[in-house]
Structures are given as C-alpha cells and as structure tokens.
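Appendix B: complex inputs.
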Amino acid sequence: MTAITTATTDTLASVRFGRTLPRRRIRTALATHPLAAAGAFYLLALMLAAAGASVIAPADPEQQDLARALDGPSGSHWLGTDRLGRDVLSRLLFGARVTLFDVAVATVVFLAVGVPLGIAAGYRGGWLDRGVVRLADLVLAVPGIVVLLMVVAVFPGNDAATMVALGILGCPGLLRIVRGSTMAIRGELYVKAARLSGLRTPAILRRHVLPRISGPIIVQTSLFCAMALLAESGLSFLGLTRPESQGPSWGNMVGEASNAMSQDPWLLVPTGAALIATVMAFGLVGDAVRDSAMSRGATAPPLFPKRPRHQVADEARQQPGNGVVPVLSVQGLKVTIGGTTVVQDVSFDVPPGKAIGIVGESGCGKSVTARAILGLLPAGGTVTAGQVVFDGTDLTALSDKELNRVRGPGIAFISQDPASSLDPTFTIGSQLREVIRRHHPQSRHEAQRLLRLVRLPDPDAVLRRRPAELSGGMAQRVCIAMALAAKPKLLIADEPTTALDVTVQAEILALLRDLQHRLGMAVLLITHDWGVLADECERAVVMYAGEVVETAGVDQLCAQPRHPYTAALLAANPHRARTGQPLPSIPGAVPKPGEWPTGCHFQSRCPIVQPACGNGPIALTRVASGHLSRCIRTEELVKR
Amino acid sequence: MIRATGRWLASSIALLFAVTVLTFVLSALAPGDAAKAMLSGQTTSYTPEQYQQLRHELGIDQPLPAQYWHWLDGLLHGSLGTDLFSGQPITQALNGRLGASLSIIVGTVILSALVGVAVGVFSAVRGGLPGKLVNAVSLLGLAAPNFWLSLVLVELLAVRYAVFPATGYTAFGEDPLGWLRSLALPVIALSAGGSAFIARQTRDAMADVLSRDFIVSLRAYGLPLRSIIFKHALRNAAIPVVTLLGLLFVGLLGGTVLIETVFAIPGLGQQAVAASSTHNLPMIEGVAFYFAVIVIIVNLLVDLSYGWLNPKVRKP
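Resulting structure:
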C-alpha cells in the first residue's frame, strides 16, 4: 500500500510537461523506451485475453479433477492444476477478468474525483482551493487500511464499494498534481488571452488546460493502477473481497497457492508472475511517460565518470624555456560536452604570481575552460585533446583522486555566484573547518585567521551563521577564505563580482589584488569587464565562440587590438561610452557550439570579413612580441 | 515556534476527529450491529427483547452523535471502551499488540532506509549501466506483492532451509534473539518494496543535488568525494527522502495487516482484520484511533527532522 504515496513525490516532475498532444506523447515515450512498449503491449494483450477468457481458456476454471490435483505444468495443463485439479491457466485468465475489473472501477473513481476537483481548485483558487487541498491532506493522512476494512465490514460482499473507497483514498496525490499544473497553466499568457477574448471556462479547460495536464494524469493513473492491483489482490488474498467461493481472482489464487504450499510450492509461481508482470507493466509505462517529459533517466550521463587516462606526452614536462616557467600552461585544449565541441584549440600560460585575464561575451567557453582545468566539467563533459600542465604535471592525465590533491593546495577556485557556492545546510564554520582540516589537520583558530584575512569583521559570528544569512559580498569573502585555506599557487576566479552590488564589487577586487600580492599567488581571472581587466591583470586572453582569438599584454591589447572581435569588444565597453550617445554594441550573437562556421568563428559579425575568412581553420599567429591573434587581416586592422 | 506548535495541534486534532467520526458514520451505515453479532455468536436463536436489551446495554440504541459523545467522554478518561466479545478494555488489548506491529514497521523503515539510501546514492553517483540495473531491480521490488513475497520467503528460508521461524512472534522481553529471528521474514518481505521506493527517491534527489553549484565549489576546495557525496549531497537530498520514510511508515500500517495475517503475528493489523469481520466496532474504533495517533507522531517527527536537516527550509 506504500504506492499510494508515490503519487505525491512526482509533483514537481509533472509540471514540466510540454504542450504535445497526449496520444503523441505516449507514442514518443513508448518509441524511446522499448521496455515500456513491451509493458504496454503486455497490458493490451492481457486485457484482450481477460475479455475473451471464455473463448480462449483451455478449460472451465471451476471444473475439478481430483485425480490430477496439484499436477505440475504439462501438455494438457500448461501451468498445472490446483488442489482440486482445476486448470491454473484458465483460472488465471478468468481471475484476470475479476481483478482487472476491480482495478478499473477504482481507477475510474480515482480519475472522476481527482481530476475535476483538482482542476476546479487550481482554476478557481480562493476558498474552494483551500478547502479542497485541506480535505485532500486529510484523506492523505487517514490510514487507508482502516477505511478499507471498515468499508468491507459495512458493505459485506459488495466489492465495488471497496474499490470505490480505494479510488477515493488514492486520489489526493492526483488531485494535488492536477491542481498544481492547472494553476501554472492558468497564469500563462495564452490562457489569459483566451479568457480575455471571451472564451467560456469549459472551453478553456477542454482546449487549453486538459491537453496540458494529460501527461501528469497519465503518469499518476498508471502508478495508481499498479497500487490498486496490489491492494485489490491483497484484500482478496485475505478473503475480505472476492472470496475464493465466488470464483478465481489473482489474490485468492495466491491464497489458494499458500494453502497448497506445503504440498507443492509451484502454484506460487504462475500467480506471482502474473501479478508482478502486470504491476511492472503499469510502472514501466508511467516511468516512460515521465522520463520522456523530463528528458532524464536512462540517457543521463553519469555525474562522476571515471576519467579516461590520456597518454602523457613527454613534452609536457619540458617547457619551451623563455625565462620563467609558467605555473599553469594550457595547450591546445579541446572540450566536448555530450559529443558537441564547446572549446577548442585553447592555449595560454599563467606565470607564477601574475594575474591573467580571460575576456569574452557569455557563451564563449570561458567558464568551461576554467572547469576543464580543475577537472570539474559538468556531466557529459570531457577533455578530448590538449594538455593542462600545472607545476610540470599534465592534469588531464591524472585520475580524479590524484587531481583532488591538486585542488586546493595547487589550484583553487571561486565562482561567480557565491550564494549558491556554499552548502546551504551547514554553518560557515563547519564548512570552512572541514576544508581547513583537509589541508592542515593541526591548525586551530585558522578559520578565524582566514576570515580576518578576507576582512570579515567579527569572524566568530560569521562562523556560526549559515550561507542564507550572509550578504552576497560576505558570502564571496567566505568563498575566498575557503579557497585560500590550502594556500594555493593559483586562484581561478570565475567572474567573482558579477552577482554582487557595484559598491561591493570594488571591495572584492581590491581584496583579491591585495591577497595576490601578499600571498604571491597567480590569478586567472575570468571577466567581461575591461575596467576590471585593466586594473587587475597583466595579460589577457580574449575568447570567442570556444576559441582563443587574441592574447597580449593588457596595455597592448587595449591600445592596439589585432583581432576585430577584441576591437569590437573594446568599442562596446560601457566605460568608454559618451554621454548622450547610444551604448555601442556588437550586432548579432555568439554562435552556439555545434553551429560554428568553417573558418573564422567571428566572420558573421565581423566588419572586415572577406571570403577567405570562411575557407578553413585559422591559426593563432604571432603578430608582435608576446601578441597572438587568430585573424588573417591583422594588417588591415592596424591601418584602420 | 508557538504558532507552529499551535498549527500542529490543530491539524492533529482535526485528523483524529475526522478518522473517528468517519469510522462512527461508516459503522452506523453497516447492516446489522454489534448486538446482533454478539447474540449470533452466543446462541442460535434470540428474542427481539433480548436484542433490544443488549442494544440498550451497549448504548447503541442512542442516536449516533450521543454515542460519539459518549465515546469521546471515555477517551478523555483514557478509555476506548471494551472488546465486545472478551470484555477486555480496548486499550489493554491493543497495547499488548502494539509492540509486535511497531517492531515490524520500525524494522522495515530502518532496513528500507539503509538499503534504499545506499542503492539510491550508488545509482545517482555511478549512473550508466549500474544505474539502469538498479532501476530494473527496484521496479521488481516495487512490483512484487508483499504477501506473495512472504510466502516465497517462508518456503525458501523457513521450510526448505530452516533459517528463520515460519510464523509467530517472540516478544523482545522474552528472548531478544528470538525476537530478531521472528521479525526477519516479515521485515524482509516488507522491505523489498520499501527499499525500492526509497532508492528511487534517493537517486532522483541525489542526482538533483549533485548537479548544483556548491558541489563544484566543494570539489574545487579539494574536499574528498566521500565527504561531498555522503556528508554534503546526502544531507541536502535528505528532506525528500525523510518525507518518504514518513510516508512509508504510514503506508506500512496497511502492509502489516497482510503480513501479520500471513505470519500469524499478534499485532494491530491482525486485530483489525478480525474485528472488521466480526463487527467488533469498539475494537475497530480503537485500531483507527491508534493508527491515527501513530500517523500524527510520525508526521511530527518528520517535520522536526526538516528543521534539523535544513535550517533554511522549514517546509519541504
């Protein structure tokens, strides 16, 4: 009877169904889920067999043959005989009639009560909604078995009454889901428009609401059918409904099998198999419809895949020596997510103790690059080519465990949204101390010291709070403190100020700059703000549509960009806008991964595009000392 | 705090009221009554006078509201009436049976939580083929009717290999080891569905939490995967799982009815079946009341756990 409750847990899942028609939805769900299709086919066949039981059953289900009692499966009795020598297969077929009929009665009640009440509550709202929901909660809390037993006592021999009660007991879950979905749809523009244009409520419900909520209804109904089947056969097993004297049902056949168990346990097999297969078939169909609506489930990639081991290239250890050995060197990095290339041919170095910036519009692959360096790509993402050499080791060749030793003391990370980067359920102190313990087991008072380092007043009070009780600025300071706990050599800051107030932004940046100098860390700063870049960084890497398009010293880059994208990005810098003029912007949008053009990725938005730009991949070439650009027309750019 | 307590009290009383009124109304609809049931149990023939006399003695000749009022009055004095047949006070009869039922239910909840959470976490973290396999097995666990599964377990583990007793219940006070052994089969039979139920919810909740931003941050701070999965992700995924454990507990009240009958365990469920077939209304009232109180206590514990699991979110 536990299944009564499954209904409620799928509430959230069910609101997200699209607007496709129910019939088509079932068809697509079945097409992509072969097991569910088998289940649906089985159910259909079962219903036909039950309906035609009197025609296809090999024997009369009540015909006894004591001489052949408890015979195992044989040619004349495919599934054997019971204690009175009755044919089990025939009894199963006739029993299916009874059992499926009972389930159908319960399901009709379930739908007839749950759907209209749910729609009414969700569509009307107000007191009706409150009353219905209160009632549904009450029914959900009432121990259903007591009601069923009472109904059995009150209406002896009236099995339909018990099934009606079962339907009513099951419907609160459906009711709440229908109500929730109806409320969501009711608020949508096209439904409002239909109302305003004078369409009557019944018509709106029929045309706009019902098709949309049919998905969750199908899911809930299939789960309810599974539950009702188990409940019905349980009651019949106890002899409370459908007693054996009134002919076979699946439940009383299990009861009969239990009586014969000491002599021959075989009878448990066909009855159990029939019940399990039918419940599973209902469950599979429901799951498939739900999965196809959420596009989750079987196809979802594992969250923590085993990292494939790359061949470690020997060159990785020998840096092209031009003076300083960089603390981080990314070479020819290529990242795919779910088979689509999102970052390719990304190379840059971060010298020790220096700050390097990555700039570009949203969707250019900046964050993916940062996460690829840390080996923390989202589900389905892998580094398919290139190296990430940190301190002489290629990180892409490490196992996750080995890489985890680099995270923290080697490379630390702070993200753009501090509020969602802390575990909401633990106090700051608990989280910070856990990170500290991981790296410096003996340190006491280290938490307070770190919070003072990031200039948080009253560290003790902060340690006692939970993330939700901090402002964005404070949360980011805490994140920085946690990142610094292991004294990293390199800090990757992914737009650390984007989510903060303007006044707080400057403080956080000043803090980062100060810490960088005091602790001698290298910083890889991802930003889209030229002002921040100019203030913080010595060199910058400009990324566009998954590629590095230009790298140079920041001063050089601002004074004389050698890639039209950099130039356009600089021109669109709001800091340079003149009062009274419209804010300059780059027309068009960044092409999405998978839609990149052949040749230069920027060609569709470039003011100096030529036919040659689309011919083939363009290499990152040196245009001046320490200045690289991925453009075949850099000369033109200088002349202009 | 005071408001929350007040709200909890109000909803608890509403539930108790609804359950007891419902049972009273349903019993009034029943053909025949307790007097008839008692008389036909004692003698083969009885006079209408005898019948009326007994009705009067039992107080069931009064109008229903008066009967209910009488029952409520008794409740306030700690009495739920007496068993029509044995004359034993209902509270005494049911208290004696509470231990067996609660042992089965609590045992099943614990086993389902352990197995379900372990399997759910594994399937969320590993995904791929193991995840699919877990999915299929859990569906099988959900689909197998618990009364059928108990018969199979009895056949395998009691009859064929006498590992556990086939039927009966040994109280903990008598023999703790015997108590464990007598619980094994009923608990396993109920836990198949229970743990599958919990496993699926744990998997979904864990998959959801593991895709959130703070997991990436915690990994970037170098915390070991063990801590991230079992400490941080699991605590964040716990609320829906604990909610379901509460629902499982309540659902198991129904499960015990079948299981106690199969294993001949003297619990509340077995009493409920017996009472409903003999029209023993005070007893049915009593079981309904006990079940409702259990539901209220479980819901309270679940609510309290929310505050501890996630202080930010007081409501799921």
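Chain A touches chain B through 95 residues (CB under 8 Å).
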